[in-house]
Amino acid sequence: MIQVTVFQDSKKQIRGISCKGHAGYARYGQDIICSAVSALTLTMANSVETFTDDPFDGSVEEETGNFMFRFTGSISPESRLLADSLVLGLTSIQESYGKKYIHIRYKEV
Hints:
- The chain is α+β, with helices and mostly antiparallel strands.
- 38% of the residues lie in helices and 30% in strands.
- It has a 5-stranded mixed beta sheet, covered by helices on one side.
- α1 (32-51) runs antiparallel to α2.
- The longest helix is centred in the last third of the chain and has 21 residues, at 77-97.
- It is globular.
- The two termini are 24 Å apart.
């Protein structure tokens, strides 16, 4: 199962996201859920880096499937939209395939 943690501030604005594990939907290399989560998370991180000046820390571990991203300063409206879009996509995957493969939780930071 992919375990997603969305880190939010007291105003419910996304400050970061963590994804750990593999979905287990299919064999490694053929798992469409893992592929979709990877595409969404990496596109969001690359988009923040390319289209904004917002500072962040991030890491990806291909072997473990771990992804970590957190904003380290102020967040522009563009980055808020990108982060919200990521969570929308992940939520859609969870609704389509179930919490057996991807589980999203929210944590206030």
